[in-house]
Amino acid sequence: MSGVPAAPPRPWRAHLTRPLVLIALFAAALALAAWSGSGYAPTLIARTAILALAAVSLSFLIGQAGLVSFGHAAPLGIGAYVVLIAGEYGITNALVLAPLGFAAAAAWSAGTGVIALRTRGVYFIMITLAFAQMLFYVAGSLSAFGGDDGLGIAARSTLFGARFLRTDTELAICAIALLGAALLALERLAAAPFGLMLRTARANEEKLAALGLDPFGHRLLALAAAGGVAGLSGVLLANQVEYVSPATMNWHVSGELIVMVVLGGTTRLGGAVIGAVIVMAIDETLGHFTEYWKFGLGLVILFAVLLRGAEVRGLLRGAAHG
Amino acid sequence: MTAALFFSQLLNGLQLGVILFLVAAGLTLVFGVMDFINLAHGVQYMLGAYLVAVLSAWSGSFAAGLALGLLAALALGFAMEVLVFRHLTRRDHLEQVLATFGLILVVTEGVRMIFGSAPLPFPVPAVLNGSVTLFAGLNYPVWRLVILAVGLAVAVLLWVLVNHTRAGMRVRAGSTHPEMVSALGVDIDRLFLFVFAFGAMLAGLAGAMAGPLVSVEPTMGDKVLILAFVVVVIGGIGSIKGAFLAAILVGLVDTMGRAFLPDLLRALVGKSAAATAGPTLSSMLIYLLMALVLSFRPSGLFGGRPS
User: Fold this and answer.
1) Model's pTM, two decimal places?
2) Which of residues 56-95 of B touch A (CB under 8 A)?
3) Which of A249, A291, B24, B264 lies most in the core, judged by the most C-beta atoms within 10 Å?
């Protein structure tokens, strides 16, 4: 992760174009799906936008702060469990659930972050993974909320009793809007001095320390912000599936989120959206042919990483010159 | 709490500990020597269980199955290193995480394609089936004692290998000062190849030992992998001694916590509160232990390099 130069400062409006283009594309896809009358396409678009939201928040951590969290399924799952647990107590108002999901997930990420941030590199990866796995087992022991099997949510979220999420198209609109808002907010945060501090700390922590600056607070805040956004994604996910189980927090989910972030590229947050679309596309196409679609996904990941190696680039260059 | 129950849980804890040690030993050395994060180590544990189960059934003898299975696990370790892992050393941790995650998906789904999702039958070898009376009131399964003995024997063997042989010296040096060892003319890539393959075989041995006790299924490596991570983090990356002590500690805390914490809570806070908090708290114990250790020693109990 070393030697990454901090991006040069740009006028902050320049950060708006790419998110807006992505959101416009999502909206166009949804409009097309609604016009064609397909029942399945809006569900797929909603799901993609929801996972993209979680992936964007992780991309902020990995790309900006250089914090490779392998436990991002935990805040996602917390958001989902907030919907389930609050629903059991009769709370379905989205204006309560969304802030609650954000706050609970942010609190978890910051709380575990205080310990995880004491470490670096491989340790950080393993500790975030272990904490997320702890939450996975805790969720499995909540017998009042379905234990290992999970539980269906009482009802989709409402606005003061008004049911505004009756169809997956309505849910997709919500998810796309939140994805857009998160992209803009996180892009803005990355362009601010806050983001500069994170990138500098990632590139050369010693130099920062020599300047008398400690990035701990910034990193903790970045973890909390990213966790909160993942929590929002979890709130949406629970509404989409209408079912919450510990499987939401399985470490494979964390792994798939990392896959989305890296396949799409970490230099820009929008990359994670493209990565989410790629993974969902692989899921959809291969999933139709075989139940073993993850075999194909694994191969794609393996080759994507291995072929990024210098040997192949050299080989191609040699072929081009020869 | 009777003495018999206490001792049987103590032995169970120790037995989980040595299994974890077998898995964590290879993991910690691969981390240490090459600063390499290998998520696919749990897959090697799973493959070991499958190989030994299938080869025992095929040859009709557990001993032959075990010998062939371990050789096959070693060969697979070499193959994986040559095909995948050597292209990832000195790359970014993120890329290692990604590639080994991809490898997990490929191998796990591959095994599922061949054997299906249902658990594979893996009976305890007939000679070692049954139980012995350790003292009045405590009958303990022979197979679990065998696991303990094998685990401890391997620990001693590893200790001799790492501390008293020339190859072990290189591994120790390589896990703390890889650049210096490389500068002194040791081929560190070759060292890594052997450490990796040997670690894969140890994980395979752990899988074969645990096979008759747990269900042999494609995802059996997942849980062990995370526990092995906890062990490596607590023990300190690259330290065999740390891995051993941490593995025993984690095995004991996890087993004893699950066995006795609910009863303890019942005595302290009453029945209904204990019924909900007991299972939750006991499944969190080892992670709390990890958090506690890291608060005081961020690079683990015996971590050489501040990471």
Assistant:
1) 0.86
2) 84, 87-88, 91-95
3) B24
